[in-house]
Amino acid sequence: MTEPAHFADIIDEYEFLDADDRYRLLIDLGKALEPMPDALKTDATLVRGCSAAVWVYPTVRGDKTLHFLADSNAAITKGIIALVLLTVQDKPAAEIRDTDIAAALAPFDLKNQLSSNRTQGIPNMITLIRSTAERYA
Question: Which residues are catalytic?
Fold first, then answer.
């Protein structure tokens, strides 16, 4: 399971940045997320356990890949969910289910780069994505 080239490029760029620029990179990733319609930001799509509101909505494409829409009301958190989605976006459900998302995110060392408030919801984001993939696999 190889990650998209752009994910590897982001890892390479992130390694050379100082803390402030790493924040900016995450914010830019969040800004680049595909817009999520407000109508999809419901209690059913809300990720539990995040300090900021995070919504994730899966769609199944004709080729049986999963495409996720996501948003957050906090810029850094939106960047984090964007980073998480880069590891799974537009892949088959079985591949997403079998992807070790936490390991893919390890090079970013988010727990040491960001406050615990910002990172506490990451496992919940991953669990939601994995359980969605299990339903469709």
Answer: 50
